[in-house]
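Lab meeting notes turned into a lecture example. A postdoc, R.K., suggested we walk through two folding results consecutively so the class can see how the record format repeats. The first protein's sequence and structure tokens come next.
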Amino acid sequence: MYRRLGIISVCLVALLVACGIPDNGQVSTIQSKDLRQLGDTLPSTSTSTTPPTTIVPTTSTTIVDTATTIATDDVTLYFISGVQLKGYPRPLAKPTGVDSVLFALQQGPPAGQPGVGIRSAVPTREQALITSTEDNSGVATIELPPGFFQQTLPEDQLFAIGQIVLTVTEVGGIGQVLFTQAGLPLQVPRAPTGGLSNGTEPLARRDYVDLLNPATTTTTSTTTTVAATTV
């Protein structure tokens, strides 16, 4: 029993020492200001309840208008209809020049219903590539490749040249046409005479306008009176 009392006494002494009893044996009361100072030295145990900030990525969509308006000119191309030439408008991208109208002409008549009954005497680009040069004088020089006329029936050769001259002179600033082959002047069929040009004189629309309105063939009867000579 005494042993137990001794153990309890030791524990009480230790407790009193821990509570701050001074060495003189008197109990000292802890002041509130001391508690404040004690609190200042203790680490904060408060837990933040503010939720973490979540950054939501944003995606912006930019709509790009890919539609492009292409400026065009209506250019008249000439093709064969029946026994004459007729003009057929076709929109071509600006700026229109001699090469662009020749390119369109060598593509042939319109496809489908608009091209019914229409044909061309001008060979395609695969058959005979036609090129041109301009010198800002109003005269376009058309280079016909070797074999051009071999690609065209003899009776259609006048139509082929008429198609080219009438179509090219539809281009603004072009009023006359010269033809060359291998860079040299070339004689070509010329209307209405049915002969050939001299190769050095520029040709104009007036030289082929008769192909647009072929003259009606008429038969004229002529009576010749022969006077009898009496011997």
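The second example is placed directly after the first for contrast:
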Amino acid sequence: TSLDAVYWTSAALSVGVALMLSFGSREVRPEVVPEGRAWDLALRAVRGVFTSSSTRLLFAAYGALLLARQMLGPYLPLLAVRAAGHGGSAVLAIGIVTGVSALAGALVSPAAGALGDRIGFRPVLVASLALGAVAVATMPLAGSVAILAPVAAVVAALGVAAASMVTALLARETPPERRSATLNLVLLPLYVGGIVGPAIGAGVVQVGLPWVFVVAAALMAGGIAPGTARPGPVDGRAAPAEGASGAPGGRR
């Protein structure tokens, strides 16, 4: 059936990604290679996230973004069906909305990185969260797939931009001896959001489908405060200054 083909295609693409990572990428060893038992290293990495003000703030901002995205994700197809109306094709509407949004997310990542280099990672992070929250809140107002699809694309693009800035800031502000372990945990908020977000959405949708997106927008906006806050000293050292290029010391 056509549904079977979707899953077979997804499986083939996953294998393709694994092959590209195996033969087309080069592993870069960290500046400081952690030593010790795997369990001790894992506990040390988790402690490092919660004892550093910089990583706490960035993980909080990223957690708010991912919680919102995981909350609205299951209900975006329902919103697409509603926008298509009774005379439209539900399958086509879902495909257009989700496909356009995924494509926008893939295309915007390089541009977001270049913008962060020019004006600073933290300003791009905060702006992406703020604009993303506004876009999410307006999604239920879309009266057609032609309107919903570009709005969903904007939401996806801003989400990718914010995620890219979090990763860049973690790489820049985390000390070398903890950088590799911290970046390995960067998807921890995704795992938590994947459990908590749909659970919240299941409760909120009982009030009405639009409210899922309103609450998700509020959660996303909740990441602005920790995204704006400047970290304190890192292990007794001053946090690196972010110049105009978003890198320590600015453009060189």
